[in-house]
Amino acid sequence: MHGFYHSHWVLTFLIFFPLVAALAAWLAGEERARAVALGAGIVEFLVSLPLFWEYMPGERCALFPGGPAFQNCASIAWIPQWGIRYQVGLDGISLFMVLLTTLLLPLMVLGSWSYIKVGRRGFYASLLALTTGVVGVFVALDMFLFYVFWEVMLIPMYFMIGIWGGRERIYAAVKFFLFTTVGSLLMLVAILWLFWHWSGANPGAASFSYFDFLQLQLTGTQQRYLFLAFALAFAIKVPIFPFHTWLPHAHVQAPTAGSVVLAGVLLKMGTYGFIRFAVPLFPDVARDPATVKWAMALGLVGIVYTAMVAAVQPNAKKLVAYTSVAHLGFVILGVFAYNLRGLQGALLVMIGHGLSTPMLFFMLGMLYERRHSYEIDDFGGLAASLPLFATLLVFAAMASIGLPTTAGFVSEFLVLLGTYESHPWFALAATTGVIFAAYYMLPMVQKVAFNALSKPANRSIPDLNGRELAVLLPLVALILWLGFYPKPFLTRMEPAARGVIDASMQVRQIAPPPLTGGAGVTMAPAR
Question: For residue 350, is it within any domain?
């Protein structure tokens, strides 16, 4: 097994096993589909878990001796005439995104155990197929392969919202699909342009390799347009203000598992894209002062504006949906701070948000199963009738706010430190986001759990059962672990984070070619 965890086979298994399990869940029938999905989710998580201690920070595979350091590498010809390869690898950034994805999978199945009553085999097959796309995005090192996984993820998510969602599910699903597809198509155009540019400079050596694209020398204008194409796709996925309008509808209408996977990992694909692709591929534009100020300004607006919008929401699920925009605004600040503290803080926010916000969505889903409502005014005094639920709701809310000893505090504190080093005024303004977080989260908790128990329907609903505790308690443990002792996480991500910062400081800009045309510099393709 030691060799398995130091080869590409572990990544290949984690990518394609959920797809095979999706077929098995579909064939198992309505009654057995959830049991098959649960078993597959547990296997997927248990197989991925040893990566946490088997991963060796800073080590690199022999397959890619230059450029960023990756492990568990593979580079196998897929469509050789176009230079498309099955090229995957793992570093300290993608490691935690993969582990977060595999952790949430069995929890989502358990959380949907009694929620999904119709079309179970289709639902669980979609959830498993979605996992294939998400894991693939986080480990792909061939740009065409990355784009395939990026698009594969959209289809099952569209069906999860459109079939198993709420009353306005079709509107929400179509809006989600259109927003993300527009950004994706622009990114595809940019990827194809990079491919043609590489092929023109290296006749007979067609390649979509991430490592080859990192070697390209581009003019300032070329970098600017390419960066905008990538950044727009990732900004929509995060989402960054003002591209966030699809998110509240998708969250409110999605089933519980759909909201969990959306907040837990799908939004992180956008921030991961900035860190992995937009910044290292186009460093001259990415670190340009105008770009940095615009990015930080949009992140800051997202923190403050969406917090104010969240505070006036009558629907608890929509309130939590808006908080995602605010939290991920901190990630944008950390990424564009261009220092180790800021970037490590951004990565920790991605992990911490992927624990606390899914916990809130799980709990709101459990409440919906009992009362069939997300409206805050329909509740009140639940601490008297559901003490366990109220206790964990308070904990999840405190973790979302960023209470010390929780993941939110450590991560946002690092982001603010890193941002203060490079842009003090942005850091000071972003600090108000912590206050606004309490402003929108605490009144919701008070109205749901601690007001008078005035509605008869709330008196007889049952408290959390064993299955629901099995969903929530692992998230509690991880939130506290990350809050009390983040060192194991920081140690594993530090070399990769330094690599991103170093890549962002490189100069790849060249002077525009003369009007008569000019040949590119020939470089050896990475294999």
Answer: yes
Residue at 109 is within a domain: no
Residue ranges making up the domain that contains 359: 287-506
CA distances from 211 to 59, 472, 495, 523, 524 (A): 17, 40, 17, 11, 11
- CB atoms inside a 10 Å sphere around CB 217: 16
Instruction: Show the tokens assigned to 30.
Output: 């309505």
Residue 514 has pLDDT above 70, yes or no: no
Q: What is the pLDDT of residues 339-380, one digit of tens each?
A: 999 999 999 999 999 999 999 999 999 999 888 888 888 888
Burial of 285 (0-12, 13-18, 19+ CB in 10 A): buried
Q: How many domains does the chain have?
A: 1
Q: How far apart are CA 392 and CA 236, in angstroms?
A: 32
One-letter amino acid for residue 109 of the chain: V
Question: Residue written as tokens 């749901």?
Answer: 448
Query: Please, what is the Cα angle at 71 between 66 and 74, to 5 degrees?
Result: 85
**Helix locations, 64-165, DSSP H:** 94-111, 120-139, 143-164
Cβ burial 233-270 (10 Å sphere, 16+ → b, else e): bbbbbbbbbebbebbbbbbbbbbbbbbbbbbbbbbbbb
Average pLDDT over residues 184-198: 93
The answer to whether residue 486 is domain-embedded is yes
Q: What is the pLDDT of residues 205-259, one digit of tens each?
A: 889 999 999 988 888 888 999 999 999 999 998 888 888 888 888 888 889 999 9
| Rounded CA Rg of the chain | 23
